[in-house]
Amino acid sequence: MKVRRMSQSLLVVAVAAVFAAPVSATTLVRRGLDRLTADNETVVQAKVLDIHSYWNADHTFILTDVHARPSQILKGRSDSDLSFTVMGGTVGETTTLIVGGPDLAPGSEYMLFLAWMDLPGAPHRLTVRDLSQGVFDIQMGRAFSQALGEPLLPDAQGRTDAPGGDEGILLESLTRQIRDLR
């Protein structure tokens, strides 16, 4: 009897292993500055003032509202302050992590590529549509894509590197390129 129960348990585990969904990372096709600029309605250099994570209306997904103050509006329009929503965040002891998603912190400055999209349980929100590729960290006059280190699939030209690479892009140069691409 004990052997039969153990055999049934092993069979259940084996069946579960066969039908389990494979775990995989987010796969992103490389987006150059041309596509980022063309495909997003708003491009701003901004300092994040605060963030607030919460459950969506259905209590099925965690979202984070980001409040930022633009220092440059390169495309689109913005009031003195800007609010947008990203997927993921932490509420209490529960965290929703978006692999390849943007990493934003209050007090930090970024170049943000934003578009209007429907998010889980939150329709028509301004968001970072291109995940980590839509955010550049600004440090000491340079901009670094948050997609650095992400395994990007080749774009139409066969490139897989994040714009600016490990060295980043001079902020002046990035600003000029975005303005020229609008």
List the helices and strands and how they pair.
Layout: H1 2-19, E1 28-29, H2 33-39, E2 42-55, E3 62-75, E4 82-87, E5 89-91, E6 94-96, E7 109-119, E8 122-127, E9 135-139, E10 142-145, E11 152-153, E12 169-170, H3 171-181
Parallel strand pairs: 1-11
Antiparallel strand pairs: 2-3, 2-7, 3-4, 5-6, 7-8, 7-9, 9-10, 10-12
Order of helices and strands: HEHEEEEEEEEEEEH
Average of the residue pLDDT scores: 87
| Rounded radius of gyration (Å) | 20 Å
Q: Return residue spans where pLDDT drops below 50 for at least 5 consecutive residues.
A: 1-24
Number of domains: 1
Biggest sheet record: 8 strands, antiparallel
- Total strands: the figure is 12
- Determine the number of helices (DSSP H or I, runs of at least 4 residues): 3
Overall 3D form: globular
How much helical structure, as a percent, in the residues?
10-25%
Beta-strand percentage?
Answer: 35-45%
- Class computed from helices, strands and strand pairing: alpha+beta
How far the N terminus sits from the C terminus, by CA atoms, comes to: 73 Å
